[in-house]
Structure formats: C-alpha cells, structure tokens
Specification:
four-stranded parallel beta sheet; binds Double cubane cluster; YjiM-like; Benzoyl-CoA reductase/2-hydroxyglutaryl-CoA dehydratase subunit, BcrC/BadD/HgdB; alpha/beta; globular; 10% strand; FldB/FldC_alpha/beta; hydro-lyase activity
Length: 429
C-alpha cells in the first residue's frame, strides 16, 4: 500500500465527494476501537502486524492505490458488492477490482430511516447511512455496485440504493434444484456480460483461469490458517482471524494471500512450540450466524476478553468464504462460468430453504476445531437467521454441544448485558 507520509488524504477524500469532517469522526471512533480491542491482546503472532497495517490503511493507502492507479492510466474499474454470492472471479477476469461494501457500524441512522424502516437490520441501515452521509471511500470509489436478491431487506433496500449509485442486482434462487441451478448459471453469465460492458474487456479463457486460481490461492491460505486453530493452546485469536477475512474483502488479493500464508506459517510454528494467544484449556467457542462487517468486532471482543477464544466462524465472514474451491480444470469459458456458479450456489446462507448444510457444517467445524460451545448470533431484525436458530439449537443439543443464541445490533448499549450472558455461558462449559 502507498505510504502515509506527506500525502493529503483529506484532499483525496474530498475529491471523492466525501464529507471529510464526518469521516474524520468515523476514523477516530474506529481507531479508538481498534486500539482498545486489538492492540490490548496479549502474545499476538508477530505476523498480525499486517492486520495493523491494513487497519491503518483501509480508508487511506488502499483507496489511494485505487485512485492513483486510475490517474496513472490503470483502466481498472472498481466494483462494490455486499454479499458472498457475487463471484469475485468474474469481476477480476474482466479486469475490475472487487471491494466489499458491507457496513459494520451505525452511521446517520436518521437519514437511513427516511429510506428504510426503523426495524431494518443494522447491516442494511449501515450501508444506507454510509452512502447517505458520504463517509465510505469504497462506496464513493466504486464504478458499479452489485447487489443481490437475498433477504427481503436487502432486496428492497437496493431499490433505494440504486437511485443513489449505479447498481446491478443479481437474482439469487432460494431453493436448490436443477431448474434453479440453470437459472443461477444464467444469472452469473448475465453478471459477466455487465462487468465486461463496464470495463470494456472481454473475459478470456486465460483471464478466467487466472482469476479462479488467484481466488483459490486466497482460500487455500485461509484454510491453512484455519487448520492451526484446532490446537490447544490456539495460536491466534478469533478477533485477528475475523479481521483477516474482513481484509480479504478490501485488500489486494496477491498481497493479502502472501500475508495470510505468513500468518499461517507462524501459527504452525507456534502450534509446534505449544505457544498460544490464550492459555491452554481456555474455553473454545465456535461462532455461527450473520456476517460481521468492519468494524463490527463487539461480540468477538466480549467473548475473548471474558477469557475464552473463538476458534472458528461458520458465516460469510468466515468459513463460507473459503471452504469450497472452484475447479481449475474447466476446459472452456462456459465450463468455468458453470463451475463458478455451482460453487457459489452451495454457500449455506439462511435465504435457502431447506438449509441443512449449514447445521452440518457447524457440527463438523465444532468437532474439527474442538469447540466447547457454539455461539449463534443474528443481527437484530434478521428474521432468516433468527428462524434458523431454532433448528441450530436442536442440532447442537442432539450432538451434545452447549449452544447459545444472541441477537444484537451495532450499538454498544447492550455490551454489559451481553458480557453477563456470555460469562454465564462460559461458566457452564
Ligand atoms: S450470503 S448471509 S452476505 S445474504 S443480516 S442483510 S440476511 S437481514 S447479510 Fe448475507 Fe449474502 Fe447470505 Fe452471506 Fe439480510 Fe440478515 Fe441483515 Fe444479512
């Protein structure tokens, strides 16, 4: 990433049309949280300095790279997305850069509530508020936003968001069968056409094959890191792993993959040496539920500051992002696009019915990562994940794994109450 020295980032943010003063307030609040939550952790792997670097550059150096690349004649367009169903391979094969836009903080809620109901999930309200208050450099840098018909809240919010920003909405099926597989394959091809139109570059066999490989390498690095977390003591915190995935939605893929492999290598050595981020025997939690966008670190911080450690995440900012690869042996562009579509259709989101694969994944991960308990969290007003909590609790109970469900938003108001509940849960493990 470009260095911070002597560069006028405030001018850059202003040139993107952002509200620079409001953005100063956002950066200060996030910086404070980062210091309180991440930098107070003891015995972090040294290679997590990459995460400190990402955190301090996320709105500055990384955006400067994207903006300066354009000024220097790099024709790459920026495509923003909000969901794991948007295939990054297609965006990069057509010569664009994909960035994640989900907002993990409440911002300008009064403005957002003019367009979406008050009882809308905080993730949706967050991205609407970020756009309306002009405080997200990723939204402002994006040439196109790709949305998706997943939950009702997002589906309807894109109708309003699309009036503020050029938005292409993908139709994601909600059941899996041969008809919907074909429909989804067509939808993925429709996206490919739209991105080609945006960049003016045709997807070729070569570019698509390279994009598949690049995304798979990132996933393999994340899987490698993930495997080290089965050890006791666990070599790296859940907070640092969560931020690693969050960074994957924003940073350059090659740099990120190298950094994750460095972290995995150090964690492997720590496992060999019996060195951990928490003492041996610390209670081990598997997280499942709704995604956690930057800077939503609240729950992981409470769990880990209570003496437990998060050893895995079954969610879109976790294993769903990296567990399945796209086959690399597709012979033609059409084969490769179908392989991509099929891989993404298997993401175990609660929009699908039935969605038993999610329960199976949670139980498998709990076994593989030696979890003592499962914490299932849905963002407030997320009916889908709230509904799935019933079946998840039964599945955990049948498997003999202690389980707890939490519903929370982005505000710090319920932190005390959450801490009490989580401590009581850890006590009984
Ligand atoms: S693939 S989980 S990223 S849709 S929390 S906005 S579901 S009301 S984020 Fe998601 Fe894609 Fe599924 Fe993953 Fe709606 Fe629920 Fe809010 Fe949600």
């Amino acid at each position: 990433m470009a260095g911070q020295e002597e560069y006028d980032y405030r001018e850059m943010w202003g040139s993107l049309g952002m509200d620079v003063e409001a953005h100063d307030g956002l950066l200060a609040a996030v910086g404070q949280m980062y210091g309180d939550m991440f930098l107070t952790q003891g015995n972090r792997p040294k290679s997590t300095s990459y995460l400190d670097f990402v955190a301090s550059n996320i709105h500055s150096g990384r955006i400067r790279e994207l903006v300066e690349g354009r000024e220097a004649g790099d024709p790459r367009k920026v495509v923003g997305s909000f969901c794991l169903y948007v295939p990054e391979e297609i965006i990069s094969a057509a010569g664009a850069v994909e960035v994640g836009l989900c907002a993990g903080a409440e911002w300008a809620p009064e403005e957002a509530e003019k367009l979406v109901p008050r009882n809308t999930c905080p993730l949706i309200k967050g991205f609407m508020g970020f756009k309306l208050a002009s405080v997200c450099p990723y939204i402002e840098t994006a040439d196109l936003v790709v949305g998706e018909n997943t939950c009702d809240g997002k589906k309807k919010a894109y109708e309003e968001f699309g009036k503020l920003k050029d938005t292409f909405v993908m139709d994601v099926p909600h059941v899996r069968n041969e008809d919907t597989r074909q429909q989804w394959r067509n939808e993925v091809k429709r996206l490919a056409g739209r991105i080609e139109e945006l960049t003016g570059q045709k997807i070729t066999e070569e570019s698509l094959r390279a994009a598949i490989k690049l995304a798979n390498q990132k996933r393999l690095a994340l899987k490698r890191l993930d495997q080290t977390r089965a050890a006791d003591p666990v070599p790296i915190s859940g907070l640092d792993c969560l931020l690693t995935i969050q960074a994957a939605f924003m940073d350059d893929s090659v740099r990120l993959t190298g950094a994750i492999n460095d972290m995995a290598q150090e964690c492997e050595a720590r496992v060999e040496a019996g060195e951990g981020v928490a003492p041996k025997g610390a209670k081990r939690i598997l997280y499942t539920g709704t995604p956690m966008a930057v800077p939503n670190w609240k729950l992981f911080n409470i769990i880990e500051k209570s003496g437990a450690v998060v050893v895995g995440e079954e969610c879109c900012t976790g294993s769903r992002y990296y567990k399945d690869l796209v086959p690399e042996d597709g012979a033609t562009i059409d084969d490769m696009l179908n392989d991509i579509a099929d891989r993404y259709l298997n993401i175990q989101c609660a929009i699908f019915t039935p969605n038993d694969g999610r329960k199976e994944d949670v139980l498998r991960m709990a076994r593989e990562l030696n979890a003592d308990g499962i914490i299932d969290c849905s963002l407030q007003f997320c009916t889908l994940y709230d509904m799935e909590a019933t079946g998840m609790e039964l599945a955990a109970r049948d498997a003999g794994i202690p389980y707890m469900h939490i519903s929370t938003g982005y505000s710090a108001d319920d932190e005390g109450q959450l801490k009490t509940r989580i401590e009581a849960f850890l006590e009984m493990l």
